[in-house]
UniProtKB/TrEMBL annotation:
UniProt KW Transport keyword: no
Recorded superkingdom: Bacteria
GO BP annotations listed: DNA-templated transcription initiation
Native organism: Microvirga aerilata
Protein name: RNA polymerase sigma factor
InterPro entries according to UniProt: RNA_pol_sigma-70-like, RNA_pol_sigma-70_dom, RNA_pol_sigma70_ECF_CS, RNA_pol_sigma70_r2, RNA_pol_sigma70_r4_t2, RNA_pol_sigma_r2, RNA_pol_sigma_r3/r4-like, WH-like_DNA-bd_sf
Start and end residues of each RNA polymerase sigma-70 region domain: 16-77
Domain RNA polymerase sigma factor 70 region 4 type: 103-155
UniProt family annotation: Belongs to the sigma-70 factor family. ECF subfamily.
């Protein structure tokens, strides 16, 4: 792949400023150099997205900033565990039970009247407020609340739940549908 000489020169001219910005973000020269290199590689790979006549340095800074934040979010979820003690203490719920519970939930949802299922899914699963769900459905807020309540009760009946917290278990999707905040 060949890059236009003017674009190449613009990229090279912006590199010292990119490096300074990367150092200020990472507080680590080696990490900053890696970030600048990754930025330039991404820019070259996506050079067709750059609009000639616009600010190359701003485009490169945007790429660098987005890369930094993506990596920051990724690293924030990572746990340092050099000796393996943390990993040894972890346990995982079996995969098949939530899958089977979800299938049961789908079957029970399919048996609900359309208006109740729609209200329950908007409020419980999609996270809309009662007011937003009422606006979407074109009805009163009280109607949505009533439909959601009837749907939850009927769903619990169809799934043979007696004590919600014990019957449902750790599946957060099911819990959110059955116990959505009013």
């Amino acid at each position: 792949m060949s890059i236009d000489g003017d674009i190449r020169n613009s990229m090279l001219k912006a590199t010292p400023n990119l490096r300074a910005f990367a150092i200020s973000l990472t507080n680590n020269v080696d990490r900053a150099d890696d970030l600048v290199q990754e930025t330039l590689m991404r820019a070259i790979a996506n050079i067709d997205r750059f609009q000639p006549g616009t600010n190359m340095q701003a485009w490169l800074f945007t790429i660098l900033r987005n890369l930094f934040h993506s990596e920051y979010r990724k690293r924030r979820r990572e746990v340092e565990d050099a000796d393996g003690k943390y990993a040894a203490a972890l346990s995982v719920q079996p995969d098949q039970l939530p899958h089977l519970d979800f299938e049961d939930l789908q079957k029970a949802l399919a048996r609900l009247p359309h208006d109740q299922r729609e209200a329950l899914l908007l409020v419980g699963a999609s996270g809309f407020s009662y007011e937003q769900a009422a606006e979407i459905c074109g009805c009163a807020v009280g109607t949505i609340k009533s439909r959601v309540n009837r749907a939850r009760n009927r769903l619990a009946e169809l799934m043979h739940f007696t004590d919600m917290d014990e019957d449902i278990g750790p599946d957060r999707v099911t819990l959110s549908v059955m116990h959505a905040v009013a």
